């Protein structure tokens, strides 16, 4: 399937590149058009089984995860991509199901690895990135290239649980975008007519906590974050690809989770679940994930003080501390 990808998105705004490189990371900005996946990285060529690579995956409607980076140990090897179709990354030529998205990201990571090296990986993902981590972690024991030791899931419940919750009117209204965005052609057209950047900003404010706190919002918007996120949504291919992400969440991803249940496929790696106590935590608890556990160990932490859906941006210090603790337990 031909891919509609306006590569002007790669160099449109580069404030984030300056910020991330100042933190000691490198980017593939100059080769992103041929690489297809845009990413930041550090320390991967020097990685070893004793120093797992930490893969950080962002959610909707965002791009690369960067708020927690300066709060992590500088010696941790990092790989921080834009999900396919988000930010500067090309959409996939086929469906954006989470197995395809995850394997595409890991394939990009292999290009940085020393030859004949089976790397150890820790995954951490928020929102849609968390769903990619979910799929890769369930598939972990069968992955031919990577030793996936565990995953951190930020502010999500299983997709199957999410869709089932829409049997109540309140849940359907609160998470309206799940069914809206899954209608790819309709949603893309409507969002573009109203302005993709406006739609992006609207959802950032809608799902954030402490919206009336100037200090909290300044932290969220630091380093031009809102400008970087919303600028990407000016591009039709980004809007369409992100909608296809949700379409896959209603079809291929849901079918995979149903198949997991039938076949008894569970997490055989360790899982940490981080959630917003007053938002997601007001409706769900870790029980939804405990039911998905196999031989892996499970732990959970709730974030209070009005923190909303965007945990890494609204509470970067606590998020980084939790991720670091999980990472160090698996070194």
Automatic annotation (TrEMBL):
Q: Which Gene3D superfamilies does the entry mention?
A: alpha/beta hydrolase
User: Taxonomically, which superkingdom?
Assistant: Eukaryota
Q: Name one GO cellular component term.
A: membrane
AB hydrolase-1 domain boundaries: 54-179
> By its UniProt entry, which InterPro entries does this protein fall under?
AB_hydrolase_1, AB_hydrolase_fold, AB_hydrolase_sf, Epox_hydrolase-like
GO molecular function, a single term: catalytic activity
What is this protein's name? Putative fluoroacetate dehalogenase
Give the originating organism: Coleophoma cylindrospora
């Amino acid at each position: 399937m031909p891919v509609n990808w306006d590569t002007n998105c790669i160099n449109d705004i580069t404030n984030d590149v300056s910020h991330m490189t100042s933190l000691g990371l490198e980017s593939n900005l100059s080769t992103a058009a041929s690489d297809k996946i845009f990413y930041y990285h550090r320390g991967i060529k020097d990685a070893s089984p004793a120093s797992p690579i930490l893969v950080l995956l962002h959610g909707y409607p965002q791009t690369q995860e960067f708020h927690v980076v300066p709060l992590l140990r500088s010696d941790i090897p990092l790989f921080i991509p834009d999900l396919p179709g988000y930010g500067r990354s090309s959409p996939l030529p086929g469906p954006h199901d989470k197995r395809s998205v995850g394997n595409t990201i890991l394939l990009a990571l292999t290009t940085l690895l020393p030859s004949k090296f089976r790397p150890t990986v820790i995954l951490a993902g928020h929102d849609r990135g968390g769903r990619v981590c979910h799929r890769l972690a369930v598939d972990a024991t069968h992955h031919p290239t990577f030793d996936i030791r565990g995953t951190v899931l930020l502010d999500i419940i299983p997709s199957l649980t999410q869709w089932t919750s829409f049997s109540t009117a309140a849940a359907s209204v609160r998470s309206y975008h799940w069914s809206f965005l899954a209608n790819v052609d309709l949603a893309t057209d409507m969002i573009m007519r109203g302005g993709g950047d406006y739609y992006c900003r609207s959802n950032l404010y809608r799902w954030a906590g402490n919206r009336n706190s100037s200090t909290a919002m300044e932290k969220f918007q630091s380093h031009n974050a809102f400008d970087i996120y919303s600028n990407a949504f000016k591009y039709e291919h980004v809007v369409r690809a992100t909608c296809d992400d949700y379409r896959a969440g209603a079809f291929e991803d849901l079918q995979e989770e149903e198949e997991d249940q039938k076949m008894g496929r569970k997490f055989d790696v360790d899982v940490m679940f981080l959630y917003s106590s007053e938002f997601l935590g007001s409706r769900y608890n870790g029980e939804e994930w405990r039911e998905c556990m196999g031989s892996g160990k499970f732990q959970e932490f709730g974030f209070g003080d009005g923190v909303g859906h965007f945990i890494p941006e609204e509470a970067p210090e606590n998020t980084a501390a939790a991720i670091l603790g999980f990472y160090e337990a698996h070194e």
